[in-house]
Design brief:
Number of domains: 1
Distance between the termini: 61 Å
Number of helices: 4
Low-confidence stretches: 6-15
Helix content: 25-40%
Shape: globular
Strand content: 15-25%
Mean pLDDT: 83
Radius of gyration: 17 Å
Order of helices and strands: HHHEEEEH
Length: about 130
């Protein structure tokens, strides 16, 4: 009986992996009406996974930037993820998402201290 309970718990825990949680959250995203902050985080989490950066950055240690650097870009969400290890202390994983469409414009690592604006994100898109 204990073995059966253990197997059941193991299967239940594996079914609740961060990847499946992100996939489940993404199903609730309605891009047709624009993307709200919570939906932006779900999209950004998926971009982090797709970039194979979960080994370097915390999936749930994210932040929507609402500071003087991101403020001029009112049509975009800027979500960044904090590093897991001190060797990457100055790095962040940045995901830039269009608010209207939910399209990911940028999803890569960057060093926040090197930039005074986000114009470079949009220059790379063109």
């Amino acid at each position: 009986m204990r073995k059966l309970i253990f197997i059941f718990l193991a299967v239940a825990i594996m079914g609740c992996s961060p990847l499946s949680a992100v996939e489940q959250n993404l199903q609730s995203v309605e891009k047709a009406d624009g993307v709200d902050p919570n939906e932006a985080v779900y999209i950004a989490q998926k971009a982090l996974i797709d970039a194979d950066q979960m080994k370097n950055f915390h999936l749930n240690a994210n932040e929507i930037l609402r500071n003087h650097v991101s403020r001029p870009y009112k049509d975009h969400w800027f979500v960044h993820f904090n590093p897991k290890n001190y060797k990457l202390n100055f790095w962040r994983f940045l995901v830039v998402i269009e608010k209207d469409s939910g399209e990911v414009i940028y999803a890569r690592t960057y060093i926040p201290l090197e930039y005074v604006d986000f114009d470079w994100v949009f220059e790379k898109k063109q």
